[in-house]
Amino acid sequence: MRILHILDHSLPLHSGYTFRTRAILKAQVARGWDIAGVTGPRHPGNADLSRETIDGLDFFRTVPPRKGPPVIGELLEIAAFAHRIAEVARDFRPDILHAHSPVLNALAALRARAVTGVPLLYEIRAFWEDAAVGNGTGREGSARYRLTRMAETHAVRRADAVAVICQGLKDDLVARGIAPDHIMLSPNGVDLNVFGDPLPPDPALVRDHGLEGADTIGFIGSFYDYEGLDDLIAAMPALVARRPAAKLILVGGGPMEAALRAQAAASPVAERIAFIGRVPHDQVDRWYSVIDVLAYPRKHMRLTDLVTPLKPIEAMAQRRLVAASDVGGHRELIRDGDTGSLFAPDDPPAIAAALAALFEDRSGWEARRTRARRFVEAERNWSSNISRYAPVYQRLITATALEPSWSRSPPAKA
Questions:
Q1: Per residue, what are the HEC states of 358-385?
Q2: Cα separation of 358 and 48, whole Å?
Q3: Exposure string for 15-36, b = 16+ CB within 10 A, e = fewer
């Protein structure tokens, strides 16, 4: 089977998006499938390269079109990307076009499908309009928000099949009138062959950051507003009052970093809050090794209610305790009191109370870590999750073969 993945960006960039992509592509290669990716005009460095092989994976690049005003600029990007997808497809000759959000990729893939006849699976990791609200670049209910939502619904209706990463996204699409059997679930997961063996506490990190005897709380990821890290910092004075050895470790960076550093510096427990900065991906497990509890205080909004994050799954794979806000995306991953702890969102006192309670009773820690790890092994392991695509791919290939109007040979020119 030959699959062409249609992507916003890819390796060598490091992000949750590229790590999920890498996991999917690597798992499909392991099944013996032929895989390639084509990235859109927004991938950095497109103008300099037409093709790259990174970590054994082939990626074709798209030259960005000329700039345009809002809407016109996006239409130019869609046209350029559609042309490039069709161009790559003529050489690679895929059986499936597998487009990944955002919706611009799906719209470009729909155009490419029209000229190649190759069936299209569109995979949604988050709705673009809600991601923009969460990132602070959009406003819910605005004209742009409504237009993007309409484009998303249009793409979902036109695609031959749709994949989503969690039940929340599926429920939202069904509420828009999309047939449930048109949508498959492809949940976030981890590659346990790469990220599955927890390290013992790293003595150098413990020594260099004064973690001997500390109750360590941590966050590893991107510093976006919706992650609620301001609430976590605001919870620290109350937590330190109950647990004087508490120390917060923030690993990563992002748009909110400057504001969070300023907030932490003004905190009465500033010395108990440490910013580590970004670390190479192959060093992340060292930081997991020295953190007792990973905290995910996401704010309550559509994005966090609908979308499951990847980081709590990584933490559970590393046998770390997880405490998270009680929003829909977390409830799909964490069973409160069983595989993790849930606390009220947007509520620093609730965060402090939940974290203090964990440190005050460690008797069930090992059993909880084991249950969480088993959940990841059974339900969030890429080596098994990847099998969900096979029947959908095969159904689309069979339907294409039976439908004369979808003949793939020879493909038309873009």
A1: HHHCCCCHHHHHHHHHHHHHHHCEHHHH
A2: 51
A3: eebbbbbbbbbbbbeeeebebb
- What is the CATH topology of the domain spanning 2-189+381-406? Rossmann fold (3.40.50)
Say if residue 51 is exposed, middle or buried (CB neighbours under 10 Å; 0-12, 13-18, 19+).
Answer: exposed
Helix (H, G, I), strand (E, B) or coil at 214: coil
Which residue ranges make up each domain of the chain? 2-189+381-406, 193-379
- Quote the Cα angle for 225-230-235, to 5°: 150
- Count of beta carbons in the 10 Å neighbourhood of residue 79: 16
Domain spanning 193-379: CATH 3.30.420.270: no
| 337-383 residue pLDDT tens | 999 999 999 999 999 999 999 999 999 999 999 999 999 999 999 88
> What is 245-274 written as a DSSP string?
TEEEEEEEE-TTHHHHHHHHHTSTTGGGEE
346 close to 228: Cβ distance less than 8 angstroms: yes
Contact 136, 304 (CB under 8 A): no
Per-residue model confidence as pLDDT tens digits over 86-127: 999 999 999 999 999 999 999 999 999 999 999 999 999 999
Cβ–Cβ under 8 Å, residues 102 and 132: no
6, 41, 126, 205, 252 from 37: Cα distances, Å: 6, 13, 20, 37, 27
CA distance 246 to 211: 10
- Comparing CA positions, the residue from 338, 311, 342 lying closest to residue 324 is 342
Alpha helices in 267-325 (DSSP H): 284-288, 302-306, 311-317
149 and 347 in contact (C-beta within 8 Å)? no
What pLDDT is recorded for position 28?
95
Note the pLDDT tens digit of each residue in 127-177.
Answer: 989 988 888 888 998 998 999 999 999 999 999 999 999 999 999 999 999
Is there a shared CATH topology between the 2-189+381-406 domain and the 193-379 domain? yes
Provide the token pair at 406.
């979808």
Q: How far apart are CA 93 and CA 409, in angstroms?
A: 10
